[in-house]
Amino acid sequence: MEIKSSELILNPDGSVYHLNIKPEDLAENIIFVGDQDRVERISKHFDSITFQTQKREFKSQTGYYKGKRFTVISTGIGPDNIDIVMNEIDALANIDFNTRHIKKEISTLNIVRIGTSGSLHKDIPVNSFLLSEYGIGMDNMLHSYLSEAVCDKILEEAFMEHTQWNPIMGRPYAVSCSKNLAAKLKSNNIFEGITATAGGFYGAQGRILRLPIQNHSLNTQLESFNFNNKRITNLEMETAAIYGMSKLLGHNAVSMNAIIANRANGTFSEDPYAAIDKLILYTLEKLSK
Ligand code: R1P
């Protein structure tokens, strides 16, 4: 069935609406970052850059690192942006923009987020690295889709019981990373755990400035949660949405986190850029193998 112009919006030059990318300019290996200024912190390591564009917060560069082709895309902040970026990169790979039909052969993309995040435990210090084995989304974005098949119901139920989850906040969703892609990225030097993804930065992550919040105990409840000896290690704003959309669309995804804040002891990295630069090089090296 032909996908109408109002549903898959293309720019006059044939690029996809928000990302401004044409199908031939998207690599199969994709790196997401939140901050648009982080795109060049990655591409400065490339052998060459063959394409670049920016619209709004979505800045993209495609190039080669040690002979392997990558596209780096900044997603901006939050799960709502992940809905846009995931749908548009999938359309670039799997919808024929000329006929507006889904391609017969569906391609799989490899997506790695290199993000910043806050640790919930004193023993996961600032400047350490963490691979998200699972994402628990507290943001509801995934519920627009028929997502049950990719979600871990047992983990979700345990999480809701432990946090005495208020239904007014919607239902949390839990999705795992791609085991194969994670195997490439693991090492003894990095922590692993469940990443909680929030739909906001302040109240949604238990920060109180002037407004009273729904759940004062959120961070201590997240910290004390244990599921089959896995703990919720950190809080950020994209991982669960990326995992959910990737699983639904048939792509591989892993989220790598530079821990720049420690919510348990109230510390913040003195040099967050050094931490993220180290994680960028670590990740590029692992992915280039
Ligand atoms: C909040 O400051 C932002 O920083 C974190 C959060 O997930 C959120 O996007 O990640 P990035 O540094 O990748 O944007």
UniProtKB/TrEMBL annotation:
One BP term from GO: purine nucleoside catabolic process
GO molecular function, one term: uridine phosphorylase activity
Top-level division of the source organism's lineage: Bacteria
Reaction catalyzed: uridine + phosphate = alpha-D-ribose 1-phosphate + uracil
Domain annotation Nucleoside phosphorylase: ranges: 30-266
Broadest EC class assigned to this enzyme: transferase
Annotated InterPro entries: Nucleoside_phosphorylase_d, Nucleoside_phosphorylase_sf
Gene3D superfamilies referenced in this protein's UniProt entry, alphabetically: Nucleoside phosphorylase domain
Cellular component GO terms held in the UniProt record: cytosol
Pfam families: PNP_UDP_1 (PF01048)
EC number(s) reported in the record: 2.4.2.3
Name of the featured protein: Uridine phosphorylase
